[in-house]
Amino acid sequence: RVRDYLSPVLKESKFKENGTINPEEFVAAGDFLTYKFPVWSWEKGDPSKSREFLPADKQYLVTRGVPCLRRATSLAYTDADEDAERLLSFGDSSGGSDGDEWVETHAGRKPNLDSAANPGEIADIPDDSAHDDDLATGVEGISLGTVPPTSEIPDIDDIPDMEEEDLEEGDEATAVMKPTPNVVDASQVEVATGNLLQVRTYDVMITYDKYYQTPRIWLLGYDENRTPLTPSQIFQDVSADHAFKTVTIEPFPNSASLQAASVHPCKHASVMKKVIERMNNSVVAEQLAQQKAPKEKKKWPFARRTSGGKDDKTAAGEDEEVEGMRVDFYLVVFLKFIASIVPTIEVDSTTSF
Amino acid sequence: MATAVVQFAPLPSLAHPSFWHRLTQLKLDVLKLSDAHVDINATYRVGRLIHDRESGPGAFIGVGGSLAVEEDSFDQAHPVLAIGSVAAKGIVKNYNTIEEFRTADKSKLFNEAADKIWTSIQTTRSTAFLNSFLLITFADLKKYRYYYWFAFPAFTSTPAWHIDVDPGWIGTGTSESSLDDAQMNSIFTQMKSSGILLPYFLVRVLNGISIGRLEDYDPQTDTIENTAIGFVDPSAQPQNPGWPLRNLLAYLRTLHPKATYKLRILCWRDADLPRGNEGWKSRLGTIFIDPQGDPVGSPSRPTAVGWEKNVQGKLAPRMADLAPMMDPVRLANQAV
């Protein structure tokens, strides 16, 4: 916390050089994200926790109820999967794209535990003690600290005599939500209705981390009964490489009391730098191609020429120069990176973009 | 022709951890030992179909929208509505002890909440309270445990609403549907441009599509042929409309008993324009009740149901255990 306070606010734009962004760029990228993907919105948070280098009404970004269909720990990782990286198209919906792709790892990977067609097993979340044991053996050398003894483990049946059957009569018009076989509806969309109540959801927040000068992601999870997830349950949705190492439970900066799981941002800048370099190269190539053939102008998302923002001065003076990837796109790219850490939480709503 | 009773998908509740934090603060600083009820706001959103990438193209998983309360719920101002969300008003009553929570006269509280909805239909003819709810709580502050029980009072219909099994509820924007793709686009655009999504609305098809307030329903001109009754539907089940439709139907039956034996219902489930070839998610169905069995002119309040069931499917409260996320001792152990 202290170094966060002491570190100066980044002023210049360094996202291509270092993979970092300044608060102004964070706001620009956030505006772009909320504009393109309205599931994201700005929040003001607790006013007493407001960060002065961000606008009061744009303290952090949030999207709620992000589905998490299965557990990351249930995904099989094999050597074959490592080779199965596949290039994903990463262009604009109107233009389509070639030349710019994104590596999706574990693309063809099959879950080894459950599937939409087999909803029963998703619900089968082991209770805390059993699960802690699993993790303790699974994640070698990392201690969970003291695992609470069984007697302390909360039991949802704590108030068993509170069932009040006579409170209301059975009602024929109330649908019973129980697993049913897959239903093919009129438009031939297959709906696995059995999973209706069996899907975890997450509230996902993005704050700006002043010390690391990158965005930082926070997760609050709920189980299929919409009960808040415990930390050990949340770690089931973090890829094994990151659970307990880069993902920890910490106080959420824009709230006086909330705790949330967060991906530690120490590696964000270096990863983002590499990704941005790759993308920038292909964006530049695309833009050069555009200049040669102006008639076939594509709507290219990285190169939107908007008014305002610091890029104007480059645009004005060196109009012939290509500007490459714009910082507006930073968070869209960032979410794709985060998706590799929490592979089953659908934080990246931009895949069909 | 085979018919089936229309079955409504119950509205699930979701209490954000920040809601419990705020309730704790309120209890310690403002309410203290008072157990007077407090007005709160909540939101619910359209049911969604989530593409399941692991199961290949065309596989979708339905995720129902839940009625969510959070930190902002105590603020008087309208909550910020996320895309595809609508607001609902309710009250929370927090008890001081688990005994009081256990022995509270829940039927009385429930009936008071249902009466309030019924009165609003009769007197103001407004839809503003149709989706109102009740929440009772007990906060065990030492253990970071919150016991709670939501109720979403919904009036039952006697006789019950029915739908023809074939075709049942059908997808919109297709050729079989009475609302084609262009009409759905028009509805979507109009709803979006109006800014705030209305929980209930009319879709009139007369020289193009227009969206109207439900309060403006006119039995003379709004016939089943040219008007559909729309509502923001938190259900994601293909053949089950969501809970909020129940009070909407009670509203229409009460105020326009002669004209509403048969209605065309639009279950609005599209927060976004459809992507690719996914198609529209909203559902359309024609439902009816038997005019013979209907006691016309009965002014008394129908019975209401709507206590939320717990995780085991019983009529009993739920508990949120926030100790793993709040207890300083356990958090310290977590931080390795």
Please provide a written account of the structure.
The complex is a heterodimer of chains A (353) and B (336). Chain A is 25% helix and 15% strand. Chain A is of the alpha+beta class and 353 residues long. Chain A has one domain. In chain A, the strands form three sheets. In chain A, strands 1-2-7-8-10-9 form a six-stranded antiparallel beta sheet. In chain A, strands 3-4 form a two-stranded antiparallel ribbon. In chain A, strand 7 and strand 8 form a beta hairpin. Chain A is globular and about 75 Å long. Chain B has 336 residues and is an alpha+beta fold. Chain B has two domains: 7-157 and 300-334, Ubiquitin-like modifier-activating enzyme ATG7 N-terminal domain (Cytidine Deaminase, domain 2); 162-288, Ubiquitin-like modifier-activating enzyme ATG7 C-terminal domain (Cytidine Deaminase, domain 2). Helix content of chain B is 22%, strand content 29%. In chain B, strands 1, 10, 11, 12, 13, 14, 15 and 16 form an eight-stranded mixed beta sheet that branches. In chain B, strands 3, 7, 8, 9, 17 and 18 form a six-stranded mixed beta sheet that branches. In chain B, a hairpin with a 4-residue loop joins strand 8 and strand 9. Chain B is globular and about 65 Å long. Chains A and B meet through strand 2, strand 6 and strand 9 of A and strand 2, helix 1, strand 4, strand 5 and helix 3 of B. Strand 6 (190-191) of chain A pairs parallel with strand 5 of chain B, so a sheet runs across the interface.
Write the layout of secondary structure elements.
The complex is a heterodimer of chains A (353) and B (336).
Chain A: H1 2-6, H2 15-18, H3 23-36, E1 41-43, E2 60-68, H4 79-83, E3 86-89, E4 101-104, H5 128-138, E5 183-184, E6 190-191, E7 200-209, E8 214-222, H6 231-235, E9 247-251, E10 259-263, H7 268-292, H8 311-317, H9 330-341
Antiparallel strand pairs in A: 1-2, 2-7, 3-4, 5-6, 7-8, 8-10, 9-10
Helix pairs in contact in A: 7-9
Chain B: E1 3-5, E2 13-15, H1 17-31, E3 38-45, E4 48-51, E5 59-63, E6 67-69, E7 85-95, H2 98-103, H3 106-123, E8 133-140, E9 145-155, E10 162-164, E11 170-171, H4 181-193, E12 200-205, E13 209-213, E14 227-232, H5 244-255, E15 262-268, E16 283-288, E17 304-307, E18 318-321, H6 323-326, H7 328-334
Parallel strand pairs in B: 2-6, 7-8, 14-15
Antiparallel strand pairs in B: 1-10, 3-7, 4-5, 8-9, 9-17, 9-18, 10-16, 11-16, 12-13, 12-14, 15-16
